[in-house]
Design a protein that fits this description.
Layout (H helix, E strand, L loop, with lengths): L1 H9 L17 E2 L2 E2 L4 E11 L4 E13 L3 E9 L8 E9 L1 E2 L4 E9 L2 E5 L6 E5 L5 E9 L2 E10 L3 E11 L4
Antiparallel strand pairs: 1-2, 3-4, 3-13, 4-5, 5-6, 6-9, 7-8, 8-11, 9-10, 11-12, 12-13
Amino acid sequence: MSLAALALAACNDEADEGVQYASSNPSIVDGVFTSDNMHFYGTATVTDSEGNVFTDPEAWFEFAGGRETLVIYMHKTRFAEKMPQLDMRIYRIPYTPGQGASLAFSSESLVPQVLLPNQVGGGYSYQDMPAYALAGVEGSVDDIVCRIGFTCNVPNLGSYRMEYEGRLLVKK
């Protein structure tokens, strides 16, 4: 998957940013996700409970799913500068079809999953992290723009409000 991201970043007709953005979104038809995974590249802005702001200008979110639910992958995400990068996902969140190439989703609370080493047998798998429940999850895809917001309460570290906006990358 990392190689795919590098290949996408290498495609460059926007030399300033090093990535190629789509001009339309063929993956959503009449408000329904119908196609290959969508990759969005943009900025995540996180504000902690003390008002400190951390910005990740290279946030990469990926959408998979089907006609009724989405899986949202947050690749190498972090909520603070010193936090290690984690691969997280929101698994099977229902969405509401919108007009044309748009959809929206929301949930009062979701348990994210984190890609972690397996304790038995080696390898990695996504594992539920109930201690890091996400609250007030809201998001949308409106043609080529994705927006997501949620609050994550991290035990012993405080509350983090994450706001993300990204643009759809061209599929190669």
